[in-house]
Structure formats: structure tokens, C-alpha cells
């Protein structure tokens, strides 16, 4: 295996000079830099990343936490993050399946810290410890003012627009299916939905589902008393797709028997029958913004202002 000493010997320069070229630090002449880089390429030399980390006190690695791997929404956020961090020379370590489990979350954080990561991009979580000694950004967050940098989807506008999607003279009562309201982003969106329904003098029922409920269980809960509702607003497009599937088995027609709205504009929302009306949170933009804000912090910029990401309304066949 080629070592840094071998490179120095072949180039007839000091080990310190090779180190400066590899780490892009200090002054080295153009000719020497080109000569050393050519030898590095010819010998297929790869620097010891652990040693470089210790030397630079930076790993060029970023930790990303996502709660649920099965939701494409989070994959699209990672795509947005990668589109910014990879060109900047960073490698991303991803921890997934954390949900709202504090123990899993802590294990993910500890694993990142052990790898000497330069910063963390995390799904919104109720932190019990202070990790602000490293650059730290939260995405998919409610609009909370504290000393954490938060990337916030416009949940208030999303709640208003989702009600507009189902509003017409035939609507009398709406079922709002939601995750636990203790989650700030859920509470923010549901509060906006309720406010808009009250404005339009429409009745509603809240139906909580837990993270442990399967999508099929969520669909069964939604349709249990469907004769009492004219519309369902559900958690996301995956739940909505399962509601559509079960409704078809029960000989129910959407939007004739009830209107249905999802959230996220997941790719599958275009391929259901009928296609799903939904709200697009622009996850790629969320990811890009989170990465850009993290790089700002790594460079020493300390602004903790929230970044508000706009939503887009997507009207399809599941609403009238």
C-alpha cells in the first residue's frame, strides 16, 4: 500500500509538502502541486481519512437523521441535501428509522459524534441535550423561535389551502386524520385546518393515529364511519393511497361518496385511481436550504433565523 512517505520520495519533496497539497493548506508552487497530484493519481494513493480528520479537526462528513425510510418525502430531502453538500466536498452519513424514539435518536447522534462529523441535519425532534457545540439544523419543523436553525414548511398556509381543495356547497362534515398533536409541526398544520374550517362554518372530527398504526389500520379507522363525512384530510399521500384502496374494496367512489386530500405530493399520488389532490412541501428545496444553512454555520456564520419554505397546491381527481 502506497504511503504519504512513498509519494514524497517519488516526488523528491518533503512529507510536509505532500501533506499541504493533500489538505489544500499552505503555499506550494504550481509545478510541485501538479507533480505530486500526478504521482498520487498514478499510484492510486488514498489518504487515511482518520488521520486527515485528526490533522484538520474536520471530517468533511455530515450526519443526516430521517424518521421514516418508507416515505419518499424524506428521500427527496436527502437528494436536496446531497445536491449542495457533495459539490462542496462533503460525505453524508444517514441514520433512518428513528421516528419519535428518543433512544434511537440519541444513538444516531452518538454515532455521528464518534465519527467526528462537521454538522448535523436532523428531522424535527424534542431535544433533551444541547448539541449546539456543532453546527445543527432541523428540517420539517414548526416555526419555533429558539437558538436552533429550523427549516420550516409553511404549515399554516398548507392547512388553509388543503381546506380550499375540498370546499364546496356539498361539504358538511370533514374527518381530519392526524399524527399526535404533541408534534409541533402536526399541531401547527391541524390548528390551521381547524381555523379555516371554522371560518367556512364546516363541522369536523379529529382522528388521531399513532406512528405504530400501519397504513391499513389508518385506512380502516378513516372509513369506519365514512357515512358521516363528506371529506377526509389525512396525514400524507401514503395514508391517502391506502384509504383509496380500501374504499374501492368497499364499493365507495372518490370523490362522489367522499373527497380525499393527502399531503406531500408523493410520486404515487399521480398513479392512484383517482389521482390524489395534495400539498407539495417542496422537499428538495427543504433539503437544499438545510444544507446551505449548515454550510453557513460551518463557515462561522451564526444566524439562527428560521427559513420558511412555501407550499404548492396540487389539485387532482380526488376532490371536486
N- and C-termini, Cα separation:
67 Å
Q: DSSP helix count?
A: 11
| Overall outline | elongated
- Contiguous low-pLDDT stretches (5 residues minimum) are none
Rg from alpha-carbon coordinates: 25 Å
Percent of residues in helices comes to 40-55%
Beta content comes to 15-25%
**Helix-strand pattern, N to C?**
HHHHEHEHEEEHEHEHEHEEHEE
Helices and strands: which structural class?
Answer: alpha/beta
Description:
By secondary structure, the protein is α/β, with parallel strands linked by helices. 41% of the residues lie in helices and 17% in strands. It is built from 11 helices and 12 strands. The chain has helices spanning 4-11, 15-22, 30-43, 49-56, 72-85, 102-114, 155-166, 184-199, 215-223, 237-249, 283-298, and strands at 61-65, 91-95, 119-123, 136-141, 149-153, 173-178, 203-208, 231-233, 259-261, 278-280, 307-309, 312-314. It has a 6-stranded parallel sheet with strand order 2-1-3-4-5-11. Strands 7-6-8-9 form a 4-stranded parallel sheet, with helices on both faces. Strands 10-12 form a two-stranded antiparallel ribbon. β6 (173-178), α8 and β7 (203-208) form a beta-alpha-beta unit. α1 (4-11) crosses α2 (15-22) and α9 (215-223) packs across α10. The longest helix has 16 residues, at 184-199. It starts with a helix and ends in a 6-residue tail after the last strand.
